[in-house]
Each structure stands twice: as structure tokens, then as C-alpha cells.
Amino acid sequence: MTALTVREEQRDRHGDRLRVCLVANSRFPIVEPFTGGLESMTWHLARELTRRGHEVAVFAAPGSDPELGVIELDVEPLPEHPGRHDVGAPPYVEVAEHHAYLALMLALAGTAGSSFDVVHNNSLHYLPVAMARTLPVPVLTTLHTPPLWWLESAVRLDRGASSFAAVSRHTAASWAPITESTCVLNGIDVDRWPAGPGGTTAVWSGRLVAEKAPHEALLAARRAGIAIVLAGPLLDEDYFCTQVQPLLGPDATYAGHLPQTELAELVGGSAVAVVTPAWDEPYGLVAAEALACGTPVAAYARGGLPEVLSPDTGRLAVAGDVDMLALAMRDALTLDRARCRERAVAELSLGRMVDRYEDEYVRLLGRRLAA
Q1: What's the pLDDT score for residue 15?
Q2: Which residue in 76, 189, 191, 192 has its CB near the most CB atoms, within 10 A?
């Protein structure tokens, strides 16, 4: 049965509508301003699927955007300032998350599951993967990280019952020894990241944590002789106080965790965006957002970032080489802003991403219908 045939059958069954269950990360709410790319991707995916006429249910952390019609996972929120709570959590939180996802998966394994056509898992928890084979509908899990031991174990337990998508070719390759996956690049709403006029300063955006290494962006900007502004949620106070704050000054400032419209204005009004991962970045959403604003990017060549950028929209430096990054920043100033915007619209858009996920849903339904 071809994908087209299945799409026609779904049209007959649901009037072009698919019933999609989105399982989100329970650690942070799906609401603006987003904590990270995972939350942003899930929010945009839910909104665009709904706009296209699909019936979408989102299971997400308490405090998520009520306009999504979120069904809150029954997990106790983390304290406001727990240190590195984006990486680890107290045992009571881990237990609460386990029980929240267990309750969800048990419900989906029963009568609740039959109310959906497909379950799309965007959490980082092991249970939606490990229990996928108990559900009466196909499950698609997006791999948002390199292999993590708890997810890797769940994938092996899954025994091939579910399917996987990776947010970049690099991420797909890192998971290849464990499971096959289809590459679906993350997409951004280019209308919400409009082309900006540029400016004279650099910008760094993202979570202020050690694995994003914003302090190296400050060092590189200073060596390049370019003022820089940092923006994003402060999730590791110890790191910020010891590594970032001492480098702030007249030519290096922290703007805080900005609302999306203000962040887009900041990025679009900058001369260059700097991306400095100290780990293999699975995708690099902030680079795509910068390109949508017409702002060229200077970044470390780690993870999926070389897939986001092209020679005419960014410059890459060896990871950890601050001097090379400073040169990349100066070189990126010469790149054409219009071309940066064009690449984002043509290759990195939300519409393109959701098209691919719709195709994956139809493919999975075809496999289920043909079984």
C-alpha cells in the first residue's frame, strides 16, 4: 500500500484529519519564552498540526501554554532555582516523572490509545519508548539528543515496535548502532523570526549552562573586538557566577530571558550570532533562528550545526578554539544577510518540518493498516 493510497484512506476516514497524541518533555513547560529547543519544537509542532486541521492532544508539564489544550502530566514542578536542574533532578522529581509517564502509557495502552491514530513522543523519558509496543497505535519518537544510557536501554527493550526520527543526520548517525531513524530537521516559524536590519554587535542566545559554553562566546567576541549580548534562561547559577559574570562589562552584557518577540528583535538587530556548544549539539535551533532573521552565524563545528549552516550563511571553527571562533566572527560579518534569510525559508522552516512529520505519520499508518 503506497503512502498516497494510505493518505486517501485517511482522508475518507477522518476528512483529512489525523488524531495525533503529542507526548512532551515533563521537565519544563511548553510555553514562551521557551527553556530550550525541545520545548520550542513541540509547541510549534502542536500549533501547526492544529492549524492544518488535525486533532492534537498534548501531554506536557504543568504550566504549559493553555491555548494548546494541554493535558498536564501529573508531575511535581521543579523549584525555581535548583542549580543544574536541566540536566539532573532530585530523586523525588525523578520518581514523580516516572509515575506521570507510567500513568500516561498505561492509559494509552488501554481504551485511551484507540482515540488516536498515532503517538508522537518528544519526551526524553524512557517509558514512552520502552512501553511503545503495548499501545494499539503506532509510536514515533523524535531523537532530540545523542544516545543517553536510559533512552538507549529503552530502545533495546522496545524490540523494534516503534519508529524513530532524528533532528539531524549527525544525530541519526550517532543512534545508528542502536536503531534506524529518519532525519527530520527541526523547523522554525520564519514569520516569527523576521528579517532584521543587522547592527554592530554580536548575539549569543540559549540556555546559560556549561554545555552551551557562552563564556567562550564572550572571550571570542572580545578577541574579535565586537561587543556581544547574551540572552536566555539562567539554569546553572554556579556556572554563571564563576564563568560568565566575571567576563561581563561594557562590551559584554546579559539581557535576560527575553520574550520571543524581543529576542527576535535582538537577533535581527545583530551583526553576527555566535553558537558555542561544548557538546555535540543535536541540531542547533538558535542558528536556524538567526538565519531567519538574516543574521549570519559563527559557530563551533559540532553535532548538527554544519547541517544548519552553509558556506554562504555561516562560518565554522574547531570546537573549543576561541581564537579561530573570533576569526570566524569577523569573517561572518561579510556574509549576505538576504542569503541567510533565504536559506532559513527554503530549508529550515516549520512548514517543511511538519510536512515531513505528516508523511511519517501516514507511513506508519500504512504499515499498521497493511499488517
Answers
A1: 46
A2: 189
- Please count the structural domains in the chain: 2
Q: Are residues 316 and 364 in the same domain?
A: no
Residue 207 belongs to domain with CATH number: 3.40.50.2000
pLDDT(226) > 80:
yes
117 shares a domain with 228: no
Are 337 and 195 a contacting pair, CB within 8 Å?
yes
End-to-end CA distance of the chain: 10
The x, y and z cell numbers of residue 160, run together, are 523494534
Q: Report whether the peptide linkage leading into residue 214 is cis, meaning its omega lies within 30 degrees of zero.
A: no
Half-sphere exposure of 324 (CA within 13 A, CB side): 11
Q: How far is CA 103 from CA 145, 211, 370, in A?
A: 24, 32, 30
Question: How much of the chain exceeds pLDDT 90, in percent?
Answer: 82
Shared-domain flag, residues 175 and 76: yes
Residue 194 resides in a domain? no
pLDDT attached to residue 218: 98
Domain membership of residue 196 (yes or no) is no
Please state, for a pLDDT cut of 70, what percent of the chain lies above it.
Answer: 90
Among residues 33, 39, 87, the alpha carbon closest in space to that of 238 is found at 87
Statement to judge: residues 139 and 7 lie in one domain: yes
Q: Is the pLDDT of residue 269 over 90?
A: yes
Cell of 276: 558555542
How many whole angstroms separate alpha carbon 121 and alpha carbon 131? 12
Q: 132 and 168 share a domain?
A: yes
Beta strands in the chain (DSSP E): 19-23, 55-60, 71-72, 118-121, 139-143, 163-166, 182-183, 202-205, 228-231, 252-254, 272-275, 297-300, 314-317
Confidence tier at 94 by pLDDT (50, 70, 90): confident
From edge to edge, which strands make up the β-sheet containing 314-317? Answer: 252-254, 228-231, 202-205, 272-275, 297-300, 314-317
What's phi and psi for 300, nearest 5 deg? Answer: -75, 140
Residue 284 has pLDDT above 80, yes or no: yes
Shared-domain flag, residues 46 and 122: yes
pLDDT at 41 over 60: yes
